[in-house]
Specification:
Order of helices and strands: EEHEEEEEEEHEEHEHEHEHEEHHHEE
Number of strands: 18
Amino acid sequence: MFIDKAKIFIKAGKGGNGAISFHREKYVAAGGPDGGDGGKGGNVIFKVELGMTTLMDFRYKRKYVAPNGMDGSGKRQKGKKGEDVIIKVPQGTVVRDAESNRIIADLSDPDKEVILARGGNGGWGNAHFATAVRQTPNFAKNGQAGDEREIFLELKLLADVGLVGFPNVGKSTLLSQTTKADPKIANYHFTTLEPNLGVVDLGDHRSFVLADIPGIIEGASEGVGLGHEFLRHIERTRILIHVVDVSGIEGRNPIEDFDIINDELSKYDMALEERPQIIAANKTDIIQDESVYQEFLTEMEKRGYTVFPISAATSRGVGELMNKTYEELSKLPPIAVFEPEMDIDEKEYVLDDKGFEITRENDVFIVSGSWIEAVGGSVNFSDNESLQYFQRALLNRGVIEALIERGIQEGQIVRIGDLEFEFVY
C-alpha cells in the first residue's frame, strides 16, 4: 500500500541523574565526593532507506521514544548513554513540525543523518560541586529532559520528470513503454491509484527518473478526486510531460483538458505554472476528428509549446519525446531540496534569552525551561549547601528578578517542575 503522509510523536531520552557519593576506603577517614555524572539521553535520528517507497510503517507505529541515560554512580563512574533510536524513511521525505507546519528537514540525501530530537544532557555528580570551602557537597544535578515533538512526514517523490494529464490519457502506458516500471493499466478512469516511478535509459549514460502522477481532474487542488492526494509529488520535478488525448474518442476537447490541468497545477502551487512543459499528443493512431487535432496543434504552437505527436500504445514518436526531454533537462538545475524553515533544536515553547519562562496560574508562579527544571529537581532540602547553591542559581540566572517583575509577593508559591516552595526574598 502506498502511504505518503504520516503524523508521529518522537521523544528523546532524559539525561541520567548525577550521583551523590563519597569515597570510602579502609584507613581513609573522610574520603572526598566521588559521585559520577549521568549519561546523555538517546537521540531520535532520521535517515534515508533507499529500499523504502512508502510511509506505511508509520501507519501502525506512531510513537518513538529513545531510552534515558543511566544515572551516575560512585568512584566517578559516568552513567551509560541512552541508545539512539534510528528511524528509516524513504528518500524524498520532508519533515514538518506539527505545531507550526514549518519544514524541519528534507531527507533527500541518502548519506546524511538528521537528529530531530536530541537527548538531554546528564546531570553532574557531587564531585563537580566540591570547592575549597564546600568539601562535602551532599547534592548533585538531575539530568535534563530530552526534546519531544509531534511531526508530519510527507513523501515527495524524487523524479526529474512528471507525467501529468487527465485519467485514461495514456500516462501509465507511456511509463511502461519507456521504463521497467509495471503500472496497472486498463481502459477505465482512475486505474492508477498511486504514483509510479521508472528510469528512462537512453543509452550513452543518458537517463532520468520519470514519474506517473495519478489522474488530476477539475477541482483536484481543492480536494476533488484522487489528484489532490498526489499533487505534492510534482513539486520536485524539473519538467512536466503533459499527456493529452487528442483522439476525440471520448468526445473531449484537448485544449480544454490542457487548460483545466494547468489551472489545477497553478492553484496548488503557483511555482508549477512556471514549470517547463513538453506536450505529448497521445493516441494519434486512432484520431476520430482531424479538425479537432489540428486546432489543438495550432493553439499550442501559438502559446509557444513543443508538441510531440505520439502513440504510447505502439511507441510511435516516444523515442523522439524522451530524447527531447533529456535535452531540456540538461539545461536545468538539479532536483530541488526544501530548505529547513526552523532549527531542529528550537523548542516548542518560546523561552526568554535567559533560558526560562514564567507563567501564572492563580497565585502559583510556574517557572519552566529545561535548565531550570533540572536544577530544581536536584535540590536537597535537608542540606544547607544544596539550598544555597539553588538560591545562587536562581539569582545568577535572573529568575528571582523576573519573579519580582511579575509581581510575586513573599509567601506565594513558586513551581519548578515537580518542586513547589514559598517565595522568600
